[in-house]
């Protein structure tokens, strides 16, 4: 597995063009899908909080719809040439909010327990650390693109959480749903750990470089 993370500085002119693109496409359909994914987070959490099989399946349905928008917002933005810095910023934030909130609720209701909690901790810590790195590099006008491997990581996380959200309700229909979800959670945690290392290795030279006189 090879690393393809490249973190490059951006010029002031390029930054200005990106701001204009963000304003132009703020209400484009791809960005609206991303907004919808963010708004789905508290609704899914509320369903998990209420509990009961009906609400669990409601949470699963909302989560699946939200996860599908993760594919379509990027696909449509590229197909319609509506890519913007706003969309590139909000897309991973929406994914992190959705996955992190669900992991916390799954740990709270006991679906994720024991050693599997460490997989959830790895995922949450990586997301916080990479977000901090992105914020620091943004002050240096350095771009941090999302790699293909990071996209695969997000997909693995979404699939794992989807299985775990069904939890006991899913096990009644198909035995082993929770077990499969926990296995996928560990797999996604390994991908998460690797991509986090990949980002930090690529960004470390900007963090440690001497300031210009």
Automatic annotation (TrEMBL):
Biological or metabolic pathway of the protein: Lipid metabolism; Phospholipid metabolism; phosphatidylglycerol biosynthesis; phosphatidylglycerol from CDP-diacylglycerol: step 1/2
Q: What's its EC?
A: 2.7.8.5
Q: What compartments host this protein?
A: Membrane
Residues passing through the membrane, by range = 32-51, 57-76, 97-124, 173-197
How this chain sits in the membrane, per its record, is:
Multi-pass membrane protein
Please name the Gene3D superfamilies in this protein's record: 1.20.120.1760
One Pfam family named in its UniProt record = CDP-OH_P_transf
Q: Which InterPro entries match?
A: CDP-alcohol_PTase-I, CDP-OH_P_trans, CDP-OH_PTrfase_TM_dom, CDP_ALCOHOL_P_TRANSF_CS, Phosphatidylglycerol_P_synth
UniProt keywords (A-Z) are: Lipid biosynthesis, Lipid metabolism, Membrane, Phospholipid biosynthesis, Phospholipid metabolism, Transferase, Transmembrane, Transmembrane helix
* Origin superkingdom: Bacteria
Single GO MF descriptor:
CDP-diacylglycerol-glycerol-3-phosphate 3-phosphatidyltransferase activity
Name the catalysed reactions.
a CDP-1,2-diacyl-sn-glycerol + sn-glycerol 3-phosphate = a 1,2-diacyl-sn-glycero-3-phospho-(1'-sn-glycero-3'-phosphate) + CMP + H(+)
NCBIfam families (alphabetical): pgsA (TIGR00560)
- Check the record and name the PANTHER family matching this protein: CDP-DIACYLGLYCEROL--GLYCEROL-3-PHOSPHATE 3-PHOSPHATIDYLTRANSFERASE 1, CHLOROPLASTIC, CDP-DIACYLGLYCEROL--GLYCEROL-3-PHOSPHATE 3-PHOSPHATIDYLTRANSFERASE-RELATED
For this chain, the family text in UniProt reads:
Belongs to the CDP-alcohol phosphatidyltransferase class-I family.
Name recorded for this polypeptide: CDP-diacylglycerol--glycerol-3-phosphate 3-phosphatidyltransferase
Q: Which organism is it from?
A: Methylopila musalis
